[in-house]
Amino acid sequence: MEPSFDDVPEVVGWMSSMVDRGGRASQESHRLFLARRTALEMLRDRGYSVPESELARTLPEFRAWWAPEPEIERLTFSTFLASDHSDKRN
């Protein structure tokens, strides 16, 4: 008999936390949360300064911040290059 994910409660709990069972607005906020976090991670990986608090924000925290005023302009952010990698010398 082959093991099933259902046999491992941690996996089931983790997987179910990734499923958004809410309505359209809930799914949209989840999509925006993931897109914004991915953009922030990409910027950080490329040497830009990104506040750790922005990267650590959870989906429920994002929804609490986003829901009262869901305006696309609120998703914008600014950052700066923390280290200049253009002058690499070998």
Automatic annotation (TrEMBL):
GO terms for biological process: transcription by RNA polymerase II; transcription elongation by RNA polymerase I; tRNA transcription by RNA polymerase III. Residues 27-87 form the RNA polymerase Rpb5 N-terminal domain. Pfam families: RNA_pol_Rpb5_N. It comes from the Eukaryota. Signal peptide: none annotated. GO terms for molecular function: DNA binding; DNA-directed RNA polymerase activity. PANTHER family: DNA-DIRECTED RNA POLYMERASES I, II, AND III SUBUNIT RPABC1, RNA POLYMERASE SUBUNIT H_RPB5 C-TERMINAL DOMAIN-CONTAINING PROTEIN. This is RNA polymerase Rpb5 N-terminal domain-containing protein. It comes from Aegilops tauschii subsp. strangulata (Goatgrass).
